[in-house]
Amino acid sequence: MQQQLSAIIVDDEAYARGIIRLMLESHDDITVLSECSNGIEAVETIKQTKPDLVFLDIQMPEVNGFDVIKEVQNYHKAYYIFTTAYDEYALKAFEVNAIDYLLKPFDDNRFEEALRRAKEQIKRKELEALSQKFINILGDIERKEDTTYLNKISIRSGGKIYFIDVANIDWIEADNQYVQIHVAGSKHILRESLTSLERSLNPQFFYRTHRSAIINIKRIKELEPHFKGDYVITLLDGTKVKLSRSRKDRLKGLLNW
């Protein structure tokens, strides 16, 4: 299947616009969206229609072809084939990354050469964009695969190693260089910082409510407003934990609150 391209024709001479339209009629893969007779009209049309390709006359009254590109460059990146009767503009045309430069009067062969070059460049850019999209997708997949969260936490106590199922944790609080892990009324001490442990817990289920506490959001029973925008969270076991106002918005999203 051919790639469908859109184009507009910009020239202050109706005859010149007609010649280009006639040459494009033999290309089923190109749709002419509009013809513009001056630079001001061209600027508005490019912004509105966002064409793939623009056949652009350089020497036009008030707003010339270079001015058109300058005006639209932050709105839409089209591909340009310049058409002009003046060859002194050729160097400047390529300085603004025009695909080709057609010196009037041009014949069918020269026009087809420019059009072929435009199609190849557009296709190449499309393939580059698609390739980059796939690279980004693969990168996202790899990052997700590399993101593994703890299912169990090991605790050393009395010469033994105990394993706690992370899903059973009610909440965790900071205790200097340690953390206290609360599970079903029991408290377990782990030599690790709260920040370090937080990175190992699934953020969809464990939320840091303030600098000294992380809660299992499945253990939340209720919330109530407190002082100056803070909240108090009551867990299922009756424990009350502060939720600072700076951290409440993301928790609202997790809870659909």
Automatic annotation (TrEMBL):
Single Gene Ontology MF annotation: DNA binding
UniProt cross-references to SMART domains, sorted A to Z: LytTR, REC
Pfam families: LytTR, Response_reg
Record key words, sorted: DNA-binding, Phosphoprotein
Domain of life: Bacteria
Domain (Response regulatory): residue spans on this chain: 6-119
4-aspartylphosphate: residues bearing it: 57
Signal peptide start and end residues: none
Stretches assigned to the HTH LytTR-type domain: 153-257
Protein's recorded name: LytTR family DNA-binding domain-containing protein
Source organism per UniProt: Splendidivirga corallicola
Classification of source organism: Bacteria, Pseudomonadati, Bacteroidota, Cytophagia, Cytophagales
